[in-house]
Design goal:
Largest sheet: 6 strands, antiparallel
Number of strands: 13
Number of helices: 6
Distance between the termini: 26 Å
């Protein structure tokens, strides 16, 4: 990141959204360790274009996301690239935890009664942010779960891997097109901790360094080169 223009901290059980412009960068820091950051993207000029988890994984021949990976829309364009990653594994297949799951594991708490000690869930957190832009339940799809790793046993049962992210670990996203970013700090759907995990997140925003011909993300896969070409064509038409 060339410069940091804005910094904030988001407590656990919170949600946030903003439009990141092309050429900007977002640095996320896991403050306490074992954070989970649910994230989803839209094209702010056309909300029908949104993050596509299957295309992101299959076109880069991966199950995990880390430095070098690009995060794709359902129109073959790249919302952003992972230009730095201390963690090494972020997942994009398990979706969101909902209110029923949270209540079953940790009991029901609402903001009206419990204020900052409430038990928010990722599904409702996204719905609150979607409403701000005239969107709703039908606009939800598979989201990212940054800082989280899932593993599978011999029978295919998935579990959340503890200790995947340490205090101070960071992830940086460079935005390749204007992007509406929605995120929350609610628990991962496979989290089975004894108490509701309140994990805080530091967010730093600024200008990204210029892209060069040897850019690691662009050259990680031939598919990524085509994705950047799709972006170039899109921006020629704006």
């Amino acid at each position: 990141m060339q410069s940091i223009e804005y910094t904030t901290e988001l407590p656990g059980a919170s949600h946030w959204s903003l439009i990141m412009r092309r050429g900007t960068e977002m640095r996320l820091t896991d403050i306490q360790g074992d954070a989970n950051v649910g994230m989803f993207f839209f094209n702010p000029q056309n909300y029908l274009e949104r993050y596509n988890a299957p295309d992101t994984l299959k076109c880069q021949h991966t199950f995990k996301l880390t430095r070098g990976n690009c995060l794709y829309s359902d129109m073959g364009r790249i919302f952003c690239s992972i230009v730095h990653d201390d963690v090494g594994w972020h997942e994009s297949v398990c979706g969101n935890i909902n209110a029923e799951q949270v209540e079953q594991r940790w009991g029901g708490r609402d903001y009206q009664s419990d204020r900052n000690d409430w038990h928010q869930n990722g599904h409702d957190a996204f719905l609150v942010e979607l409403t701000k832009y005239g969107l709703g339940r039908a606009d939800l799809a598979a989201n990212l779960n940054l800082f989280s790793k899932v593993v599978a046993d011999g029978n295919g049962n998935m579990a959340l891997q503890p200790g995947n992210s340490n205090p101070g670990d960071t992830l940086s996203l460079r935005f390749e097109m204007d992007t509406l970013v929605m995120l929350h700090t609610c628990p991962h759907p496979l989290n089975d901790a004894e108490s509701y995990p309140y994990k805080s997140l530091r967010i730093e925003l600024g200008l990204a360094a210029p892209i060069t011909e040897d850019d690691f993300c662009m050259n990680l896969r031939p598919e990524n080169q085509r994705g950047f070409q799709n972006n170039a064509l899109y921006h020629l038409g704006l």
